[in-house]
Amino acid sequence: MTPNALLEPQGPSLTQPILSLCIATLNREKYIGQTLASIVPQLSARVELVIVDGASTDDTPAIVKSFADGSPHVRYHRLPTNSGIDRDFDTAVSLCNGDYCWLMTDDDLLVPDAIARVLKSLAESPQLLVVNARIMTADLSKVLQTRRLDIDEDSTYLSGDMERLFEMTADYLSFIGAVVIERKVWMERERAPFFGTLFVHVGVIFQGPPLTKAMVIAEPLILIRYGNAMWTPRGFEIWMFKWPKLVWSFTSFSTRAKASVCAAEPWRSTRSLLSMRANGAYSTVEYERFLRQHAVGAGRMIAKVIASVPASIANSLAVLFWLLGPRKLGTGIYDIARSRHAGWLGRWCEKTFL
């Protein structure tokens, strides 16, 4: 069988759907069954699910195939080799039949009737629909953030409002599951320059020319299983370098707008380095690989010292500062309390508050 044959639809063909949910997955046997169980009952002749598997080596294929065999609205495509998340999502979009593509993740859940709510908004013909989410702990037992986008009403942005859309949503759009985009827009725009960024969807959305109409749904329709991303071990590189480089590459937005999303060089922040040291994302390894060549003078010395602080001490101090503050639950304290470097104080904090 040729690689191209592997991309041929498996299972019964569908009539032309309005919406295609596109999932790129890799080795998610622990979570993808629950994800699909939240999606498949909501599918219909108007909505298909396309799953691209980047050559999983665990039981992901068997789990996905069980859903594909049980529904005419699920199509599964297993690739011979892994090409990275950006290319795999692009492959999923190229294979789908819907007018719109919802770039869904492989470990998060849809709430009941989420698809019906999205279809209702798509009737207004936006090029982009941003879907709000609720952030949960990894086991989905507790809420860390009720609404990732802190808004109470749906909103619409026209072509002249793209900078405002960028300021409002770009940080959240690092989460690909928020994106429902017109397939025609995706296929007509540049994607290859953003392969390897881990955020190809952000590149597609905010490159020129500006979208003519975008909408944001305020109601959380997704439950994010926080702290479970495949890229977590690369957190320092991603959030200190890859993400800022992408955000600051958009020439059509003002410096003020880009700064509202993230700093151009967040690794210069002592607070950011301390936080990453506390949650285990920053060490002498990251210092040698990334900061030794970028930081200069006092900044280099500070970065080296922070990297050398015992992670368990940094972690305990971060937990203590949180306990002495307003104790607001969020992703920051969750990362710190669940770090492999958490001591008894961190473990107690996780057990008591998270």
Explain what you see.
The chain has 354 residues and is an alpha/beta fold. It folds into two domains: 3-225, Spore Coat Polysaccharide Biosynthesis Protein SpsA, Chain A, CATH 3.90.550.10; 265-353, no CATH class. 41% of the residues lie in helices and 17% in strands. It is built from 16 helices and ten strands. The protein has helices at 3-6, 32-39, 60-70, 85-95, 114-122, 162-169, 183-188, 200-206, 235-247, 255-261, 270-278, 284-291, 297-308, 311-324, 331-337, 344-353; strands at residues 19-25, 47-53, 74-78, 100-104, 109-110, 128-136, 143-145, 155-158, 179-182, 213-225. Strands 1, 2, 3, 4, 5, 6, 7, 8, 9 and 10 form a ten-stranded mixed sheet that branches. Strand 2 (47-53), helix 3 (60-70) and strand 3 (74-78) form a beta-alpha-beta unit. Helix 12 (284-291) runs antiparallel to helix 13. It is globular, with a radius of gyration of 21 Å. The relative contact order is 0.10. The model is unreliable at 1-14 (pLDDT under 50).
Question: What structural keywords apply?
Answer:
ten-stranded mixed sheet; Spore Coat Polysaccharide Biosynthesis Protein SpsA, Chain A; about 40% helix; globular; about 350 residues; 16 helices; alpha/beta; 2 domains
Tally of helical segments: 16
Strand content: 15-25%
Give the CATH architecture of the largest domain. Alpha-Beta Complex
Please name the fourth-level CATH homologous superfamily of the largest domain.
Answer: Spore Coat Polysaccharide Biosynthesis Protein SpsA, Chain A
Characterize the largest beta sheet: strand count, sense, and whether it forms a barrel. Answer: 10 strands, mixed
Total strand segments: 10
Q: Which whole number gives the mean pLDDT? A: 93
CATH topology of the largest domain: Spore Coat Polysaccharide Biosynthesis Protein SpsA, Chain A
Overall outline: globular
